[in-house]
Amino acid sequence: MLSEHQLQALAQRVLGLSQADETEVLLLGQVSRLTRFANNTIHQNVAESNVQVRVRAIVGQQVGVATTDDVTDAGLAGVAERAVALARLQTADPFFTGLPEPDHALSGALIDLGYAEATARCAPEVRARAAGVICDAAERAGLVGSGAFSTVEEAAALGNSLGLWRYHVGTTAKLNTVVMGATGSGWASAASSDVADIHPAELAHEAVDIATRAQNPTDLPPGEYPVVLGSDAVADMLGFFGYVSFNGLAVHEGRSFVASRMGQQVMAPTVSIWDDGRDPTGLPLPFDFEGVAKQRVSLVENGVVKAAVWDRRSAAKAGGGRVSTGHALPAPNNYGALPAHLFMKPGTASREELLAGIERGVWVTRFWYTRVVHPLEVVMTGMTRDGTFLIENGKVTRPVRNLRFTHSYLAAMADVEAISAETKLIESGMFGAVRAPTIRVRRFTFTGATQE
């Protein structure tokens, strides 16, 4: 991994080569180590180190972006030249307001927020032993274990020609597994900045237990059922809310329910959702991909819509005094801002309390292959996977075949009846994560069984 000094030197070399009116250099460095296993055997161990240089050149209000991983003098000169050439071919962007200027919004204490030395230095033997724990547990149960264990060190650095400099280094450890039998499967996963928080024996027990109980599923008629949605399923919901609903550009253009329901009660009073790139219980990144300090943004408070997130361009386009909340994606980006560090407030319910009172319902471990049907109402379609069970009289009783659903995630959040006290961190991309509880929802629409 390149140090801050080395990355800053790279940025300064590009800035010195650029002929643009303004120039921004985004550097994304990563050292990734991965152990994969399948059929109860490790089959791959790889390591990769890379640095990506993204140059945004501004000529007047024309913006061009070029990318390279060639950090030689010739490579850096070439990417600076291409960015300027591309800028001169673009139409002027009336909503481009210039690059951010230097500020003192971030302290040095945030540079390594979310960094664990143990993760950065994790040996392949550690990952191998973890895979072995899962494979051995699966084999003892007459099942087949597969999955992956990765340990990643990531650096994000940004410099621009106005003198702004940002740098952050973080780590991520992630272990997930699918344990399969002849007719059913079980899922377990864990993520953290610190590899010491990953407990393979617990994940092995969870996945094997789900897979064992999932064998010989029966059909469940399509219809509307009360459901208990596991943290992985809830994380899918939160991610899509961020993608289609709390993006400021979507709000401004009327593609999000937030546009017409700001300040209104749209979810259950127990539901609060926020985005916070500085929370150490997530996978922090304290600034966005144009160098603006991330703000903690309360999106939903006690079921009431409170805010959306913005980058500089979408805030300028919307007007009304809006400013960036620190949620820009890497350029080029006409999509808008994205909340990548989402949290949902936990409740107080135990597993037994989540199930209590459900006469006939469905327990869902996670969703799979979810797609947007109607973004304005967040209607989604997708499938359940790796542990779908019937709930009868407050007890999980027997497995059912995986189900296809078509339902509004917004309506589901309005129908939340109980929320677990425990939450789980689910990694969702470079420097991104969702921390989600398990929830009970009054009704959820399943349209039929899948072919799995």
How would you sum up this structure, described in words?
- The chain is an alpha+beta fold and 452 residues long.
- It folds into 2 domains: 4-211, PmbA/TldD superfamily (PmbA/TldD fold); 217-449, no CATH class.
- The protein has 11 helices and 17 strands.
- Strands 3-2-1-4-5-6 form a 6-stranded antiparallel sheet.
- The mean pLDDT is 97.
Strand order of the largest sheet: 3-2-1-4-5-6
Shape descriptor reads: globular
What is the chain-wise order of helices and strands? HEEEHHHEEEHEHHHEEEHEHEEEEHEE
Specify Rg, calculated over alpha carbons: 23 Å
Quickly count the helices: 11
By DSSP, the count of extended strands is 17
Number of domains: 2
What's the assembly state of these chains? single chain
Class per helix and strand makeup: alpha+beta
How much is the average pLDDT? 97
Q: Which spans have pLDDT < 50 for at least 5 consecutive residues? A: none
For the biggest sheet, the summary is: 6 strands, antiparallel
Strand content: 35-45%
Distance between the termini: 42 Å
Q: Which bin fits the share of residues in helices?
A: 10-25%
Write the layout of secondary structure elements.
Layout: H1 4-17, E1 22-38, E2 41-59, E3 62-68, H2 73-89, H3 117-120, H4 124-140, E4 144-160, E5 165-180, E6 185-192, H5 200-213, E7 223-229, H6 231-244, H7 248-252, H8 258-261, E8 273-275, E9 297-301, E10 304-305, H9 312-318, E11 341-344, H10 351-355, E12 360-374, E13 379-392, E14 395-399, E15 403-408, H11 409-414, E16 416-427, E17 433-449
Parallel strand pairs: 7-12, 11-17
Antiparallel strand pairs: 1-2, 1-4, 2-3, 4-5, 5-6, 7-17, 8-9, 8-11, 9-10, 12-13, 13-14, 13-15, 15-17, 16-17
Helix pairs in contact: 1-2, 4-5
